[in-house]
Amino acid sequence: MQLLYIVGGAIVAVIFYFTASLTTFIIMGIPIMVVALILAFGKRKGFPIPTIIGRSFMFIFASKRYLWKKVDTPAIVLPKATKAKAAELEDDKAVSLKISGQSRLKEIGRLIEIHPK
């Protein structure tokens, strides 16, 4: 395959050399040979350049499968919450933990600072 890229680029460059002026050959023929050499021997992250170009076109023109697309699902209806009775609220107050205004860590730090050695 590499030989085909090099021969193809050389044929195009030779055609420009014999049919066009020297400036056209330099402007068109030499870049075509450079592209042919890149296609023949170039690699990007271990993959040959023609493979990357082919996969790029496949990505652009192939149909896509969207895995994150939203699917219509039926709505979930949750039962309504009931109000708590007064007796249940009183039981909750008796069981609830004591919440101090100051964290325990700050209180320990203060005791360490003021405690004489």
Mean pLDDT over the full residue set? 80
Characterize the quaternary organization of these chains.
single chain
The general outline is: elongated
Major β-sheet profile: 2 strands, antiparallel
**Relative helix content:** 55-70%
Counting DSSP E segments of at least 2 residues, the number of strands comes to 2
Order of helices and strands: HHEEHHH
Low-confidence stretches: none
How many helices?
5
Strand order within the widest sheet? 1-2
Radius of gyration: 39 Å
How much of the sequence lies in strands comes to under 5%
Quickly give the structural class.
mainly alpha
Distance between the termini: 86 Å
Describe the structure.
The chain has 117 residues and is mainly alpha-helical. The chain has a domain at 2-61. 62% of the residues lie in helices and 3% in strands. The protein has helices at 2-19, 22-41, 49-61, 86-95, 104-114; strands spanning 43-44, 47-48. The protein has a two-stranded antiparallel ribbon with strand order 1-2. Helix 1 runs antiparallel to helix 2. It starts with a helix and ends with a helix. The relative contact order is 0.07.
Topology:
Layout: H1 2-19, H2 22-41, E1 43-44, E2 47-48, H3 49-61, H4 86-95, H5 104-114
Antiparallel strand pairs: 1-2
Helix pairs in contact: 1-2
Q: Would you summarize the structure shown here?
A:
By secondary structure, the protein is mostly helical. The chain is 62% helix and 3% strand. It starts with a helix and ends with a helix.
Characteristic terms for this protein:
117 residues; mainly alpha; 2 strands; two-stranded antiparallel sheet
